[in-house]
Specification:
234 residues; mainly alpha
Length: 234
């Protein structure tokens, strides 16, 4: 018999079952929900367990590689415990034992993953994960919040300083010192006061030059104010 078809086995009934199953393309999928692999399983149950184990010992690596589903179904039907743990000893030293050990290890890994997943789905575990994510989010956003708070504090301090500065001196102050906030933000803080101030009296050349410099560098409210105050060409 070929190494990759029917194994060289001693039991004629077992050999015939394998040959028929392969020739007739019987379903040998473990847990098949369509036919339950019943023809193969019923025929296998007619063969003494000792004969099945003896023939499993004769299966080659090639046969097992091409017929992994059939092997698992035979183990399932032959084993008292289902996965075949008690068959490792009688099959020891054979390709069948190697394949069975690999299958058992795989099933154990799947079972462990299922247990781990189930443990993660309890209300307590879900609540713990949610709390952990919230804590992580708080930690990740803390620097941003701290910068935002610091920025807001700086803006309030600068706004207070500029509110206390005479409106006619604002452009001179803004262009002569450093502030803890951006000059774009400064434009928003003083725009309304300057617009009202220069609406009541024409802007002088010196202030117009300062405003032009700020508008060119920072745009925003500075440019908006310049557009309102700059003399129009005739």
């Amino acid at each position: 018999m070929s190494d990759t078809t029917t194994p060289a086995i001693s039991s004629a009934s077992f050999a015939e079952l394998i040959e028929i199953a392969q020739r007739e393309n019987w379903c040998v999928r473990p847990g098949c929900t369509t036919c339950g692999s019943l023809p193969f399983r019923r025929a296998l149950r007619e063969i003494p367990r000792d004969e099945i184990i003896a023939n499993l010992r004769l299966m080659t690596h090639g046969f097992l590689a091409k017929n992994s589903d059939m092997f698992r179904l035979i183990i399932w039907e032959t084993s008292i415990l289902g996965y075949g743990g008690e068959l490792l000893e009688p099959l020891a030293g054979t390709p069948a034992a190697d394949r069975l050990r690999a299958n058992i290890d795989y099933q154990n890994q799947k079972a462990e993953k299922r247990r781990a997943y189930a443990a993660r789905q309890t209300p307590e575990a879900i609540a713990d994960r949610r709390a952990t994510k919230q804590e992580e989010a708080v930690l990740l956003t803390a620097p941003h919040r701290e910068r935002k708070i610091a920025s807001q504090d700086a803006i309030r301090a600068v706004a207070k300083e500029l509110d206390e500065t005479p409106v006619g001196s604002i452009l001179a102050v803004v262009t002569s010192k450093e502030f803890a906030v951006s000059y774009s933000a400064l434009g928003g803080l003083v725009y309304k006061r300057l617009a009202e101030h220069f609406r009541n009296q024409p802007i002088q050349t010196e202030d117009l030059n300062k405003l032009s410099m700020l508008a060119a560098a920072y745009a925003g409210h500075w440019k908006k104010l310049l557009d309102r105050l700059a003399p129009r060409s005739p």
